[in-house]
Each structure stands twice: as C-alpha cells, then as structure tokens.
Design a protein that fits this description.
The chain has 300 residues and is α+β, with helices and mostly antiparallel strands. The chain has two domains: 157 residues, Nuclear Transport Factor 2, Chain: A, CATH 3.10.450.50; 139 residues, Nuclear Transport Factor 2, Chain: A (Roll). The mean pLDDT is 96.
C-alpha cells in the first residue's frame, strides 16, 4: 500500500478531531466515487443516518445527519493497523447528543479498504447501545459531561509489517478460534493459556447491566470470570472467522457471530472484530467490538 494514502488518512483523523467533526468533505475526497460507507448503527431508528451509503453524494448524507444530531467533544486515535489494502483505525470518541444533552464516550474501530489510492469501503464499530440511549430523553447514560480520554490526543502510532513473530501470532489465533468455534464456546482454557499474566481484556459493552461480565478485566484469573459469565448467559450458535489482519504486535480478527441468550431464548447476530496485541508470543491486550444494541436486545 502506498504510504501516501496512509499519511492522508492519518492527516484526516487529526483534522477530524481538531475541527470537531467539521472536515467531512476532506474525508470524502479520499473516497472512491463508488465507495461504500457502513456502520454498526445500520440505520436504526434513533440514528437513521447510519444506514448503508454508497457513492459520495449518499455518503455525504451520513455526515449531514451526524452534524445535525451530535456535537463532537474529542476523537483520539491510538493505532493505525495497516496490512495489504486494509487500514484499521483503533480509536475513541466522545460526542454530545444535541437534542438530549447526553454524552457518549466509546471505544471505536474503523475499518477502511483501499484500492488505487482511494477508500472503497468503510465500516465503523462503536457502542451503539450507548448511542441509542443518548438519543432518547428516557435513555440511561452515565457518562459525565466532560469524559476523560482513554488515549493521548495526537500520539497515535502506525503498526505495519507481518514479521515472523506476527505470522506466528496469526497461526496461534487460527488454532484458538477453530477450537473455540468447534466447542461452541464450551472451553476457554486454550485462550487463557495464551494470555500474558497481566493481560488487559476489554469489551465494547464495558460491563453495562445486565452483561456485567463484559467489564474490563486485568490478569488471567479475571479473564476467566469473563468466560464464566459468557457461558452462563449465552450459547454460541456460530463464530465464523473471515479474516486476519496483522501488523507489528497486533492481530485483528474479523468474524460473523451468533449467540442465544439462555434466559430469554432470544438470539442475536453481529459482525465482530477482536483486536489482539502480543509480546513474545503472549497476548497482552484484547478488545472486542460488536453490535452492543443487538446483545442488549437479546437480554430483554
């Protein structure tokens, strides 16, 4: 991939934060004329502008809807993960809903596909359950009006290059995910054995009730609590891995998943992204991104 387009993408994200969401036209200049723009929001009623868009004019409607309903507080990027024609942007954002005054602060993952120096497809993950709640006067939001950022503004890094170590990390994960899917989530022992003793384990739902097991966990034993909560609450239907994106110490695993809530009998399906960071063959960080609104709907 040309370093020029990667630098342009990096420059856009800096401008997006500094301009507090006023630089959409600069982003559109990076899109292919027939490019697609997709969101985990998927056009749900509280955020209709997040429906799938194609061609620049239609993508522009997404940004018009965003500007109409939301005011950016900050948008910080931690890492640009680059492999082949893919750029995964690991970031966070905080926005105020203009009509309710409620604030959302969420980890975010943007996945960009490129061809001939242009973005041909864009997909974003964020905590859509939290965002939907902020759109409603009755929605429960606990984020303070001035949230504290997870990452330092302007201190992003670029992770690229599939080294021998990165290739081994991918090989390890392929084996783990095959076992995980085959057992339908019945045993997490192999996954836990791959973790560093001080691993940091995060989830997009961040411990929201009633999926408290998704809170951030530190260390192997705490991660076991995550899997206990998952097994107690949900039955895996499938976990189909589609792609591995590796660069430096990171591996991003993209999948389609489905689980059934054991208490309600309701099932959900979702695209899913698992971001792993390794050091000397052990996973030191993990964060999962998925349709949090769909998960919550299955619990009601």
């Amino acid at each position: 991939m040309s370093s020029k387009i990667v630098n342009q993408i990096r420059s856009h994200y800096r401008a997006w934060d500094r301009g507090k969401g006023s630089t959409a036209e600069k982003f559109l200049e990076l899109m292919a004329d027939d490019g697609s723009f997709r969101s985990i929001g998927a056009g749900a009623q509280p955020m209709l502008f997040t429906s799938d868009h194609s061609t620049k004019d239609r993508i522009r409607e997404y940004f018009k809807g965003l500007e109409q309903d939301w005011k950016m507080i900050f948008y910080n990027v931690r890492t640009f993960l680059v492999q082949g024609n893919t750029v995964a942007v690991v970031c966070e954002c905080a926005w105020k809903q203009k009509h309710t005054g409620k604030v959302v602060h969420t980890p975010k993952l943007d996945i960009l596909r490129l061809k001939k120096g242009k973005i041909t497809d864009f997909f974003e993950y964020f905590d859509n359950h939290q965002a939907y709640a902020a759109c409603s006067p009755e929605g429960v939001c606990t984020v303070p009006q001035k949230p504290k950022p997870f990452y330092t503004s302007g201190k992003s890094q670029t992770a690229t290059g599939v080294t021998a170590a990165a290739a081994n990390n991918v090989k390890t994960l392929k084996k783990l995910y095959a076992q995980w899917e085959k057992s339908k989530g019945g045993s997490a022992d192999a996954i836990v054995a791959t973790l560093a003793p001080n691993v940091l384990w995060g989830s997009l739902s961040a411990g929201a009730d009633p999926v408290a097991f998704t809170k951030t966990h530190k260390g192997r034993e705490e991660v076991r609590d995550y899997f206990r909560g998952l097994v107690e609450g949900f039955q895996m239907n499938y976990y189909k891995v589609k792609e591995y994106v590796a660069g430096g110490p990171y591996v991003l695993v993209l999948a389609d998943i489905s689980f059934t809530n054991k208490k309600t009998g309701k099932s959900f399906v979702s695209p899913k992204a698992d971001l792993w960071r390794f050091n000397r063959g052990k996973a030191t960080e993990f964060h999962e991104y998925y349709d949090t609104a769909a998960v919550m709907a299955s619990t009601a």
